[in-house]
Design goal:
- The chain has eleven helices and eleven strands.
- By secondary structure, the chain is α/β, with parallel strands linked by helices.
- Strand 3, helix 1 and strand 4 form a beta-alpha-beta unit.
Amino acid sequence: MSAESPDNLVHVYTEKGITTVTLNQPEKRNSLSLSMLKVLSSVFSDLETNPDCRVVVVAAAGHVFCAGHDLKELKGQFNQHEAQLAVFQECAKVMQQIVNLPKPVIARVSGVATAAGCQLVASCDLAVAAEGSRFATPGVNIGLFCSTPMVALSRNVSRKHAMEMLLTGDMVDARRAEQIGLINRVVDSEVLDETVYGMAANIAGKSAFTVKTGKEAFYRQLEMPLEQAYEYTAEVMASNMDANDAQEGISAFLEKRHPEWRDE
């Protein structure tokens, strides 16, 4: 299944349970204009209940993954607080949609991801980058601190690493991004797709119900005190045990056969 968004801002393609969402404005460095954000929000909303989609890959056309917000658009909104706020709120909405999506989201990064583009990478559940890719939250260099990108960044890397990126605005290469936990893996560009889609296919082969349960629980427990997190996840596991797929999976394991998921 293939689809183009209005004005071809985003390309959506689904095959074998994997939906690729491609930012498709390379001439604008795939910047997150308000129009782009609204399209992405609509796409993620549709994917939430799309039974053909089990895993999402976020990719980008061209040599830049995403340069962040459209600065020309923001400059045109100088002294228009409500218009500026609408852009940042729409961006926050999209990032939360990714986290709350009941399907795993993998960032396929080839090129530069800066500011809100780095935020997009950090918001995805997993991220794989090609060698040579670079990341930054450089807002401090232009007098606009990356406050909203900071939310996703600080939830993925340690405080001091996050603060270093935010305060210096310096570029971080892919190897360093992997070391500090911003991305999962760095691979040669020749095997980027093989790695990303191999990972996606692996996850797509799991029970969609179980993956949904686990992803939701992962993000919820992160914000809880230790005792509360254990109480919550114990309830999640007990409820998960009642699911058909858990019973099928355990039985299949004990009987040494492949499980037949019903996604329930």
